[in-house]
Amino acid sequence: MFAGDDKKENGAPRERRPMKEECGRRTLQVSANSDQEIPSHQVFADRGVDTTRIAALGFSAGGELAAFLGVTNDNKKFEDNDCTPGQSSNVDAIVDMDGILAFIHPESGEGDDSRAISAATNWFGYSKTENPELWKEGSSLTYVGAQTPPTLFINSSVVRMHAGREDFIKVLNQFNIYSEVKTFTDAPHSFPLFYPWFEPTLKYTDDFLKKVFKKSR
Q1: Which residues does 37 contact at the CB level (< 8 Å), separation at least 6?
Q2: N or C end of the chain: which has fewer CB within 10 A?
Q3: Residue 65 is part of a domain; what is its CATH number?
Q4: Using CA atoms, how far apart are residues 117 and 120, in angstroms rounded to an integer?
């Protein structure tokens, strides 16, 4: 979600500009042949894909990114007009597996650099005290609103890995946007990769997508 240069100028890291990564840039730009320019809608149609029902799913940092893709629907600030002119990278459902929703939050463990530089500090290039606005700009909770699609949260028992989730859901409820929470008691953060959580994770996802996309027909 954040692209930037880790090199420093005059002892300070360069500003990192929040942006959707390539997966978001090309949500609706899929080519059957990398050396040919084929309109994405044609490619999807040829493959029997309904472009009005696209879900973003991710785990851990990928879950955070999936949520970010959804909450920034219709947000021109995060669209790359040079990549897919005339097309949108909007998604129609979010499946967030243990991806945090807010970097600066009472439940978040990010930004604790007391023992070692945290992952988020490395990612942003600044600590949360040096540039809190950038940290907020990179948080899905900042943008959740009427444009956010139905969302499924599948979580482990590690509270910090879903920081901001309840506040996120409160906003969804204000706009009557459907959401579900599935929690595996005593499961580690790596739960989607292992038995006995792998198959239930698939079922939760399948059931959720069938439900929300059936409603959209």
Answers
A1: 31
A2: C
A3: 3.40.50.1820
A4: 8
Tokens 């320019």 identify what position?
A: 37
Q: pLDDT band for position 123 (50/70/90)?
A: confident
Gap between the Cα atoms of 67 and 139, Å rounded:
9
Instruction: Average the pLDDT over 65-77 and give the result.
Output: 91
Domain that holds residue 68: 54-102+139-215
3-class DSSP assignment, residue 58: strand
User: Do 90 and 128 meet the contact criterion of CB atoms below 8 Å apart?
Assistant: no
Write down the pTM of the prediction: 0.81
Backbone φ and ψ for 155, nearest 5 degrees, come out as -130, 155
The confidence band for 13, taking pLDDT boundaries of 50, 70 and 90, is very low
State the pLDDT at residue 60: 94
Residues sharing a CB contact under 8 Å with residue 200, sequence separation 6 or more, in sequence order = 182, 184
Got the DSSP string for 176-193?
Answer: T--EEEEE-TT--TTGGG
